[in-house]
Amino acid sequence: MLFTPIIKQKKGGNKSSLLPPLPDGSPVIGVFTGISVEVCGAEDIRKIYENGFFGKGSKSRGAPKLITTGTIDDTESLSLELEESAFLAYFLGILCIHDIQCNEMQYREFLEAAKNVNSHFLECLGSYLYLKSKGWIIKSGIKFGGNFLIYKRGPRYNHASFIIFVHTKSDIKDISIKDLKGLQRIAETSDKDVLLLEVSKPNVLTYNTISDLAALKISETIIRRFNSTSFVQSQKITK
Amino acid sequence: MEKMSTAKVDKQSQSGLKRTVPEGTVEEALELNKLYDDLRKQLSLPRTDRLGGRALATWDPDEKAVHVLRKDGKFGNFGYSHGGRLYLEYYEALYLLEMNRLQLEYHSMIMSIEQAYLLLLGETATPKCNEYLVYAHLTRIGYILVRHQNIPYYDKIEPTEEDCAWALALNVINNRAIPENVKKSPHFVKVKKEMKQIKECITKQQVQEQQQLSEADSSTINFNGKIISTGKRKVTIDESENPTEAKRRCLEVASSQKSFLDCLKDEPEYKQFQATFAKFDIVQMGDTTINTEDEVRSLHIAFDLYLHNNGFKKRSPKPPTFRLLILGVHEPFPTHAEITNIYNLQKYPVPILVVSVGESKQIQAFVYYFS
C-alpha cells in the first residue's frame, strides 16, 4: 500500500499570489518573555507573519488582527513559539532575541532558557528544522494534541496535512496505547495523518553551535487506522 | 433455529463509562447477579436444532489438537492435515463451535462451549485468547486467516540478471535474505562476482583512479556496460527516486528510506528558495540499519490475512494481502525499529497490520507506514 499525504485546500483561499515562504531583510527585535518571543510593531509583525505564517496574534487564535482586519492596535503583538523564534533568529538571521533587560540572547543562552520551558526542546527544534527544510509551514499542534501541525502552503490556503508527534526512543514506551489511539482518532476526524517523529540523539549531545544539531537523526512513522470492515467490502469480486 | 428473546436491558446499567475492572461493591454484585439471571433465563429457553448439521470432531490428547471425524459444509479454509488426518487449530475449533458448526467430543462426551474454552485456550492467561478474538472477528467479517508462515513466494518467471542484482543490493542495504530461486539462478554467481568487482572499483577509486581508468579500458566492453547499469541501480535504492518503476514484488524495496514529506519539493515556492532551504537542512533522516543493536522486543506475526476473492487455496497459498501483529491490552505500539525489523524479517515482504485488542475486547487495526 502506497502512502499519499492528505492535502486539502481551503475554500476561498486565493491562489493567485505566490508568497515567499521565508522572510528576509534586516533583523527585527523580539522579546523573550519566558514562554514565547513577542514581536511588536505593525511593520515587523506583517513582515514575519506574511512571509511564512510564523507566530500567532496575541489577541487572536491565529493570524494577528492586524492582518485579518487591518486595524492597527498597539497592544497587539505577534507571539512566536520557541522553536519558531530559534529558527528565525539563529538559522535565518531575521530575528534578534532580547531578554527582558534588553540584552541580546545568544544561541546557547536561548537554548538553555528554552530547555527550562520544554525539556525536549532540542528534539523539537531538530524536528522543526527537519520539517522546515522540506518546505512545510509549521504551526503549533497543541489543539490537536501533537507537537506541530504542518501545512502545505499555510493555514490560509490549506488544511493541515499532518499532526506531528515528536518523541525520543526511550519515551515511546511511556506513550500509552490510549494516547496514540486518541491522537489517531482526532487526526482521522479532521482529515489528517499522525506522523510520529522518533528523534535519536547521541549519548552526549552538545549544542554550542547550530551545526551540532546534525547529530540528531529522525525516523518517520505514520499510523493510519485500518477499517477492516469497509476494506473487505470495498474489494471487487473477481471470478 | 435458535429462538431469541429480547432481554430487557436495565437502562441504568448502560450509562456512564465502560467498566472493565471489577470494583467489588455491593451494587456491582447485585447487578452481576441480575445479569447472570438474565443469561440463565435466556439459555434455558427450549431450542430446536438439526442434529446432522454440524461437523464432528474429537480432542486428540496425544496430538493436543482437535481431530475432525466428519466434515459438514464448507471446510476449505479450516484445518491442517497431519499423518493423514485433518486437525483444527484451537482458534478454528472455537470459531466453528461458536458458529454452531462443530460438535466437539472429549473422550466421546460432548463438550459444552465453556468447557471447550477452558480446554482450548487454557486456564492461565496466554496470548491465545487475543489471537482467538482477532481470528474470530476478522473471519466473521469476511477475511481468511491462516497461521503465519514465513516462506518466500516465487513467481514462476525465471529470475533475470536484474533480479539477482536487486536481491544482492537489498541483502546489503536492508539485511534481507536472498530468495532461494534467485540463488539457484544461473545468473546469480556471475552477478555476485561482478558486483563485488564494482564494489572494489568504487572503494579503491580515490587511491588509484588513474590506474583504474586504464584497467577499465582493458576489461571487456560488454562487461563494462553491466557495471554501469548495476552501479546505477544501487544508487537509486539509496535515493529511491524511481518509485514508479515496476518491479516484481519479491524484490521490492522494503523500507525505501524515503521521507513521506518530500512531496513539496516540486512546488514553485520550494524551488524558488531552494538555496535557502538547503542552508538549514541540518537534521537528517536516521539510517534504519544502524539501530539494530538497540533493545527490540521480539514481536512476532500471528496470522497471514487473505481476501476471499483472490482465489485462496489452502494447499498452495499465494502471498497474503497483510500480515497481522497482535498487541494485547497494555502492550505498547511497536517502535520504528521494531516495525522495520519485523518487516524485514519476512521472506516475502507484505504490509503489516498492527491489531490491538482493547480492554473491552474491541479490535482495532492500524496500518504502519515507515521511512
Can you offer a commentary on this structure?
- The complex is a heterodimer of chains A (about 240) and B (about 375).
- Chain A is of the alpha+beta class.
- Chain A contains seven helices and ten strands.
- Chain A has two domains: about 100 residues, 3-Layer(aba) Sandwich (MutS, DNA mismatch repair protein, domain I); about 120 residues, Trna Endonuclease, Chain: A, domain 1, CATH 3.40.1350.
- Chain A is about 30% helix and about 20% strand.
- Chain A has a five-stranded mixed β-sheet, with helices on one face.
- Chain A is globular.
- Chain B is extended and about 85 Å long.
- The N terminus of chain B is likely disordered.
- In chain B, helix 2 runs antiparallel to helix 3 and helix 2 packs across helix 4.
- Among the domains of chain B are: about 70 residues, tRNA intron endonuclease, N-terminal domain (MutS, DNA mismatch repair protein, domain I, 3-Layer(aba) Sandwich); about 100 residues, Trna Endonuclease, Chain: A, domain 1 (3-Layer(aba) Sandwich), CATH 3.40.1350.
- Chain B has twelve helices and twelve strands.
- Chain B: Keywords: tRNA processing.
- Chain B: Belongs to the SEN54 family.
Short summary of the structure?
Chain A: Belongs to the tRNA-intron endonuclease family. Chain A has 239 residues and is an alpha+beta fold.
Keywords:
heterodimer, A: MutS, DNA mismatch repair protein, domain I, Trna Endonuclease, Chain: A, domain 1, 5-stranded mixed β-sheet, 7 helices, 28% helix, globular, B: 371 residues, alpha+beta, MutS, DNA mismatch repair protein, domain I, 6-stranded mixed β-sheet, tRNA processing (chain B)
